[in-house]
Specification:
seven-stranded parallel sheet, globular, eight-stranded mixed sheet, Rossmann fold, about 35% helix, binds nicotinamide-adenine-dinucleotide, about 25% strand, ornithine cyclodeaminase, domain 1, alpha/beta
Amino acid sequence: MSAAPMAFRFLSHEDMFKAGVANMDGCIEVMQEVFDLLGQGDYVMGGSTRNSHGLRVWFPLEPKFEGMPKGGPDQRFMSLSGYLGGRFNVCGNKWYGSNVHNPAKHGLPRSVLMMTLNDPETARPLAIMAGNTLSSVRTGAVVGLAARYLACEDSETLGVVAAGPINSICVKAILRTVPSIKKVVVFDIREEASRKLADAVKAGSDIEVSVVHDMASAVKGMDIVTSAVSGEGTPLIENAWLKEGSLLALPGRARVEDAYLLSSHIVPDCWEMQKTYNIEGHLMKPGERMIPHARLHEMVADGQIAEDTIRDLGQIVAGNAMVDRNSSKRKYFLSNGMILQDLAWGMCMFRRAEEMNLGQNIVMWEHPSA
Ligand SMILES: NC(=O)c1ccc[n+]([C@@H]2O[C@H](COP(=O)([O-])OP(=O)(O)OC[C@H]3O[C@@H](n4cnc5c(N)ncnc54)[C@H](O)[C@@H]3O)[C@@H](O)[C@H]2O)c1
C-alpha cells in the first residue's frame, strides 16, 4: 500500500474561472471530442445498462415527515456517474440539487452542483470542484455543437423559448458555431429574463434582438429554435410553427406533435441513455412517471418510427452516420445531458489548475489506517 498522503485539489467557483471554465470556444471543441468518443463507444455510464443518465433522489409529492422536502417539477437531487476514455481517461460523479423556487425564495440558482474526479485505476480522488459554470457551459457547448452539425449553413434566425441560465448559454454557443445568425427572438414567461438575455446578445454585436410575448412568435419561421423551460408544465411546440429545414434543439423540456416526429431527423445526445430513461421511468408509479420524450418511445415501440432511423449526435460526429444539415427535412436534437460532458470539461479544468497551481490541496489522509 502506498505510504504517500491521499490528497486532492479543491477548485472553487473562482478557481474554475481562472482555469478557463467559461471559455465557450474551447468547450465546444472538447464536446466535439466527447461525442467522437461516444460514437466510438469509449465510455461507461452508471446503472445496469451502462447508459443511465443518473440516480435521482425523488421526494414524495406529499411527504409524511416534517423536514422532508416536497417533490415537484425540477425538485430533485441527482447523482450522475461514469467513465470517459480517450485522452481524458477519468471516472467521476456530478452531484447536484435542484429547487425551482431557489431564485425567488433564497436568492440562489435553481441548481447547485459539485463535481468529483477520480483516477479510474486506483480510485484516488483527483479533484472536487464547483460545478455550476462547468455544467452550464458544457450544456451550452453541446447545443452549439449540435447546431454546427445540424443547422442549415445559411441559418440567420434563432428563436429562444425560456431565457434562464441554461438557454442563455445555449444562445451564446449557437452564436459561436452559427455566425450567420442576424436575428434573435426571445420568449420567457418572465419578461425581465427575456430582457436580460436580449441585452446580453445585443452587447457588442449588431444582431437584431426582439422580445416577444408568446411562444409561437419565438418559433414560427426560425431557422434554429432552442427551448429550456423549468418548473410547472411542458409547453407544446406546434408542428406548423417549425420551418422547413429548421433545427429544434431541446436542452430542456417541451412537447412536439406526432407529425413533427414522423417528418424530422431525430438526433438524440445518446439514444441508449434515452432508452434507459424509458426503462427506469416505467419502474415508477404511473402518476409520478417522468420519461423524457415519452411519446417518441411509444412511437418507436409501436413501429411508427423505425429505431434505426434515429441517429446519435456521437455517430454523426464520429462519421458513422450522416444527416444532411442543408436538406429541407427538419432536425430535432434531444439533449438530456451526460456525465461524460462534465468529466471531459472537468478534466480540462483540473489539468489547467495543476499547470497554474490553482485551488487548495486537501489531504484526505496522511497515512492509511488499514
Ligand atoms: N440538457 C442538459 O444537459 C441540461 C443541463 C442543465 C439543465 N437542463 C435543463 O434546462 C432547464 C432550464 O434550466 P435553468 O437552470 O435555466 O432553469 P431556470 O429555472 O433558472 O430558468 C428557466 C426559465 O424558463 C422560464 N420558463 C418556464 N416556463 C416557461 C414557458 N412555458 N415558456 C417560456 N419560458 C418559461 C422561466 O421563467 C425561467 O426564466 C431545466 O429544466 C434543466 O433541467 C438541461
